[in-house]
Amino acid sequence: MTKNLDKVHGEKLRSISMEHEISQKENMSRRARSCTIGNASGGIMELCLRTEKYGTIWYQFNPVEAVEMMGQLAAAAGVEMAVRPRKDFASWRPWDSPLPASAHWMGTGSYQLSEEDQMNLFEKKTQELEGKRDNNLLPPQEK
């Protein structure tokens, strides 16, 4: 009786092992082997993944989603990342806000500027804002 159980048990183990191997091969054929990132026009970016059997899958996203994705990748890698536009950055939105309190999100982390640099930037933005008020570009505000 023990020999019969051992034989049945061995056959079941081999069957499970073969099913697992087939499943693994199928999964590997769906795994991405290469990744390409490019522009899809109109400010949209595209992430394209190529599989082992040359199938492709892609994801289109806007710049905001790209920055969020970069933040998620940095967090997964355990690093901090400061994001700021290139000098020749051509974007669908301005990065340099005239508001003095916006310096923290313009690509500079608070840990990257000394207190003196932060104050200088705050004063510069305040002066720019006051200059725009004088030119009637912004509605008058009560003090």
Task: Explain how this protein is built.
The protein has 143 residues and is α+β, with helices and mostly antiparallel strands. The chain folds into 3 domains: 1-28; 31-81, no CATH class; 87-138, no CATH class. Helices cover 44% and strands 15% of the residues. It is built from 3 helices and 3 strands. The chain has helices at 2-29, 63-77, 115-134; strands spanning 32-39, 45-51, 56-61. A 3-stranded antiparallel β-sheet has the order 1-2-3. The longest helix is centred in the first third of the chain and has 28 residues, at 2-29.
In short:
The protein has 143 residues and is of the alpha+beta class. It has helices spanning 2-29, 63-77, 115-134; strands at 32-39, 45-51, 56-61.
Task: Please outline the helices and strands.
Elements: H1 2-29, E1 32-39, E2 45-51, E3 56-61, H2 63-77, H3 115-134
Antiparallel strand pairs: 1-2, 2-3
